[in-house]
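Aim 2, interim progress: modelling of the manganese (II) ion-bound target.
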Amino acid sequence: MTDIKAALRAQHIETPSWAYGNSGTRFKVFAQKGVPRDPYEKLADAAQVHAYTGIAPTVALHIPWDKVDDYADLARHARELGVGIGAINSNVFQDDDYMLGSVTNPDARVRRKATDHLLECVDIMDATGSDTLKLWFSDGINYPGQDDIRARQDRLAESLAQVYDRLGEGQRFLLEYKLFEPAFYATDVPDWGTAYAHCVKLGPKAQVVVDTGHHAPGTNIEFIVAFLLREGKLGGFDFNSRFYADDDLMVGAADPFQLFRIMFEVVRGGGLDPEAGVAFMLDQCHNIEPKIPGQIRSVMNVQEATAKALLVDREALAAAQSEGDVLGANAVFMDAYNTDVRPLLAELREESGLAPDPMTAYAKSGYFEKIAAERVGGNQAGWGA
Ligand code: RM4
Ligand code: MN
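Predicted structure of the complex, ligand included:
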């Protein structure tokens, strides 16, 4: 049990700055009270999530949504709040120039512009001290014949190589894949295999990030996780839940069993070891629920799945597996999943001087009432979509 607690104490879950802003679907973005007006206020909200969970010490930024004049000052502000800047997320999907693609665009001028943005993101890493750049490309085509699928791969490789070469000591990039949307016929980085192949070619500073919402229904995500970890190419997760497409709902809400299966492969593959460098990030939007408690709940869901994964009796499992005891092995696995780990986590929090239940502790804190009263006027942060 001491080992399990130590592993849980060492786990860090990164929250995304965009989760604190207003969001919605392409039909409607619903404004909520108290929503941050700038990156400084987003960091303040993220610090609340860390204050009550104790395991969310970093915040991912998204550029240009979190553009500021002085990134060193923003990093200082984060430190004062007790958090740090995590991954820098690039955004080459919201400019008119990118209608036909960003780094894979047939127009060299647009490709240059997109790659320059990615390089700018590395400058921001230098200024904030962040070690991770996250790359997601909305690039792809809607119609057969619209552009040359193979040439687009060449352009992608060329841009990635420029970014790779710009990475400094201790910096890396994570390449994200997504099946479809906004491109509907052929996406340029649609799956882990494509991302993996590009990363392998580039070298150790390029790794794959698994966004749990970016697969076809029925995909065995834990298999992908096991495979990438084995190859040293699992850079991290963008956690969220999906019922249909890229729903970005709270992780563990749609399928807590899947989250457990993923976390088991992480534990099995040594991915919880901080040395493994696996970043546990959330990539979510809270369209209809309050945002800070939505993040707290999500962090708790990942923590619960991790605790259950750590509870799997690996010795008994290995014994049953080697004996070919199908039902026995499955029972060992399910025993861990069916364990109520909430008392264990409450105890862990109390040992670290935290309230046993982060949700009620936050609700009682009065923070929401305070920001709702203070944050009037100005432009609430949102997706800018
Ligand atoms: C994309 C992808 C990226 C995220 C954006 C907001 O679908 O998941 O990680 O930065 O959405
Ligand atoms: Mn993502």
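The first strand starts at residue 13 and ends at 16. The chain has a mean pLDDT of 97.
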